């Protein structure tokens, strides 16, 4: 390589020498410069080459001189001869011409001197301008701005303004530069402000992504800590968790297996707001405005714009309440907004203050609470309300990690809990209605022991007598009872789901569960039972079964209390423990069912009474009771047999109520104002029917009555009929008002009304015609009795 380079250098030098020899001397400069621009030490080699060439030429000149020496001597001799002639010529020329020549040459020399001085001055001044025009000239500032190096451009302009321009301020171009500097500064401000606006628009669009990441990290952190707490409660070793609100790494120790003793550690880098958002436009714009002395303007603008964006973020979508995604997007945007503000607060000095972020948060919190109150009220799906509650908890935990107070959000959760309970109650109302509609209202048949165990596993039923019976057998309650009991437990579980993660004590959770269960029992289940009882298709048999069912559900209430106690681990003996009101619920339902039994039983009696078809003018009775009444008595007898499963008091009350209603209905039949005439034969027939009623009462259709208590329901009818059958008016009138009277229960007005119907009101077909033929005195007796009865009635009314 070295030999090649040497050959190339020798060849180049040879070429340059030939070019020098063959070229005009005025153009030699560039050729010589190329020697110095070439490789180092090349000029030395060239000089050596040049010296060698000069020596060669000297030798050639010397040879030539030697060759032409004689001719040169001859030429000199001739020149000496010419000198004489030249001196003669000079003497003949005018001296004034020589002066002019010298003067012209002198002026040329002076002009050259002036040009040299001007050039030196120009060079000196240009050297002063070089730093400002070449190193930090205005075009370079423009280039710096174009490449977004705003701070470098500002430093350049500061150097121009304070260092370089004052040195050459007398020049016009410097004045132009000084005049352009404010415009350039404004241009930088406008460009940086434009970048800031783009940044604000970007974070407005992507704040939900920032919020989603922050909430996901908060949820993971909460889930992990819950697992750690659970492992700690079980006695496992756990690594401590260090958290700095997502601003550092989180190290999680995950338990794999206690038997192996191995522990895997996963270091997961948590993304921060700075990882998701480029904050450089904010920092740059803040720094530029600070350097330009206009920081307050920038701070005011930034805060104003962020307030506007906060109001936009807080505006919910109209259909947000329809899906959980609507709520999630709403929360993500808000969290993203305040995560960015928290980062700006901690990363900048004074751009936003804690007071400003607190003001924004308080404004946002009021708006959030109002929005959630409004939209949650539209939710009728308990699952959606539960998901909303979970979102609110994660939302609150996330912002709490960033230092924002969230107590009002947890207070709001109590209102959402009430809404959740309302939706649960509506849902379970439908469940209860469906159970009641599908129930057959008959005792549960149990064919095998497995079936019996299945029923007992779903409902706490214990009866020693039934357990002793052989299979198949029947349980007293219907299939709706274990279903209702199971659904109440499911309701408690559903209510418990809302209480999770609310940072409440076990006592408070226990109280919430008991209160919501009380609402289910006293309002929802009670209403369903009341509506069921009043449904027209529910008959006496169904009502009897409902009473039996409510009795067993009432007995199961203590097991529900134990169930809640096992869930919350709060002793029922605690002072503030709320008791379940199921006892009163089922008692009220049972009383309503009992009342409905009485009502429906009376209605059934009325239906039979409407079938009565007495021939009120009959001469004598048929000798047997009416068919409708016998059917009625048979119906009552079979109905009261069903009542054997009811508590004795209920059956006795129903029986007594039915007999009293039957007695009253028969009495009203006799005294009906539309009935104008009654024959003695009709009275006798009516008496036969009343005798059958008395026989039914004396047969003890429902056990438990003492003596003739049930027969007393017909005592009014019996005494009235005896009075007319025996025609014992003298005794009645003589003993009237005496406590020992034989006809104490006969009211004078009642007797008068019935006697008026038997009185001789027309001569044709008069029922007392036999008395006029056989004994006219008896007719006069009737008239006398009527007058006396009227006097008694008038005396009573006065």
| Shape annotation | rod-shaped
What fraction of residues sit in β-strands? under 5%
Radius of gyration: 61 Å
Q: Give the termini distance in whole angstroms.
A: 157 Å
Q: Helical stretch count?
A: 29
Decide which structural class fits the backbone.
mainly alpha
Helix content: over 70%
Contiguous low-pLDDT stretches (5 residues minimum) are 138-148, 235-268, 761-772
* pLDDT averaged residue by residue: 77
GO biological process, one term: intracellular protein transport
Family: Belongs to the SEC15 family.
Protein name: Exocyst complex component
Function: Component of the exocyst complex involved in the docking of exocytic vesicles with fusion sites on the plasma membrane.
Care to give the gist of this entry?
Keywords: Exocytosis, Transport. Among the domains are: 101-135; 149-229 and 273-404, no CATH class; 422-594, Exocyst complex subunit Sec15 C-terminal domain, N-terminal subdomain (Tetracycline Repressor, domain 2), CATH 1.10.357; 612-747, Methane Monooxygenase Hydroxylase, Chain G, domain 1, CATH 1.20.58.670.
Features:
mainly alpha, Tetracycline Repressor, domain 2, two-stranded antiparallel sheet, 29 helices, 73% helix, rod-shaped
Structure description:
The chain has 798 residues and is mainly α. Among the domains are: 101-135; 149-229 and 273-404, no CATH class; 422-594, Orthogonal Bundle (Tetracycline Repressor, domain 2), CATH 1.10.357.30; 612-747, Dsl1p vesicle tethering complex, Tip20p subunit, domain D (Methane Monooxygenase Hydroxylase, Chain G, domain 1), CATH 1.20.58.670. The protein is built from 29 helices and 4 strands. It has a two-stranded antiparallel ribbon with strand order 1-2. A two-stranded antiparallel ribbon has the order 3-4. The longest helix has 62 residues, at 172-233.
